[in-house]
Amino acid sequence: MESSTSRAVAPSLLLFAILYGGMVPLGGFLGAKQVALGPLAVEAGIFPFLTLIAISSGIAELHGRAVADRLVRLGFIPLVVAILLALFVLQLPTDEGMYEPAKEAFPIIVGQSWRMMAAGIVAYGVSVSLNVWIFARMTANNGRLLPLRGFVAAALSQIVDTLLFITISFYGVRPIADLMLGQMIAKVVLSAVMVPLLVTAVVAIGRRLDGTAAPEGALA
């Protein structure tokens, strides 16, 4: 018999919480590769990270800022667990029969300095929380301009993310001004391209799953 204290979880919240939890550690893993997009160069971790941004904004739109903030806080769990597991696996002895190029590449791809690990945790918490806050503050228009609100919140939060991550990771080790500027430009451009589409899709899928209708003119 179902407990009277149990509460039903909205289908959209369950789906996107699962996706969110998977994307958090994936961003750090894919960040080991730098990709060239025309004249722009950016770490590949930006793709799952912008997906996190879109999901958190979509959850704020569907279920409110408090739920989105809780999702961001819970995201620290898979992030920290992934880091601890990576450190544990790196300490284990390597099988001598392992494919030689993979044996040499694995510590480089998975291993990070303590500064970069700390930078990833801090940048994640601050930037995604800021994204939710900005997005939620822009709801006075009764749900209108969803793609624009998603982009503005994402772009501003990605600027802060870059400031924090690059400074914590590389300050005092290498010049950071040019690196920081290039990363900011690339992330803002990608935010303009990806986030409006992603956040619109998240909200549309969420409303379909939950059986709720969009407010009149919500995408205008």
UniProtKB/TrEMBL annotation:
Stretches that traverse the bilayer: 12-32, 44-62, 74-94, 114-136, 148-172, 184-205
GO CC terms of this entry: plasma membrane
Classification via Pfam families: Vut_1
GO molecular-function term, one example from the UniProt record: transmembrane transporter activity
Keyword Cell membrane found: yes
Keywords: Cell inner membrane, Cell membrane, Membrane, Transmembrane, Transmembrane helix, Transport
Compartments (UniProt record): Cell inner membrane
The keyword Endoplasmic reticulum belongs to this UniProt entry's keyword annotation: no
InterPro entries tied to this protein: YhhQ (IPR003744)
Topology relative to the membrane: Multi-pass membrane protein
Primary location: membrane
Family, similarity comment: Belongs to the vitamin uptake transporter (VUT/ECF) (TC 2.A.88) family. Q precursor transporter subfamily.
Function: Involved in the import of queuosine (Q) precursors, required for Q precursor salvage.
Cited HAMAP family: Q_prec_transport
Name by which UniProt lists this protein: Probable queuosine precursor transporter
Organism per entry: Sphingopyxis indica
